Amino acid sequence: MTRVPAVRPEQVPDGVPVLDVREDDEWAAGHVEGALxxxxxxxxxxxxxxxxxxxxxxxxxxxxxxxxAVAWLNAQGLSTVNLSGGMHAWEAAGRPMVAxxxxxxxxx
Length: 108
Description:
Blueprint: E1 6-7, E2 18-20, H1 24-29, E3 36-37, E4 56-59, H2 64-75, E5 80-83, H3 86-92
Parallel strand pairs: 1-5, 2-3, 2-4, 4-5
């Protein structure tokens, strides 16, 4: 796999746009508040939804799918960076998450 730009959770500044490419059930369990949810398989059809005027952090569960998304998005002319370790690393670093419904957020 081609190396893509990546950052660790503790390097991510507050307010950076986040694109979450996980599936619906993973998203519902826990995600970054304010993130844009576009499952990886839908990304080509929904490319116009991804901000093109600033850097975007791309996340998945462990970093593999988001790395694929970053490689593809950057080839389309966008400026994106992968979250190293994905949402598992985000959660382990104590970064804030929200969930759909009444349960506590978690990474499934």
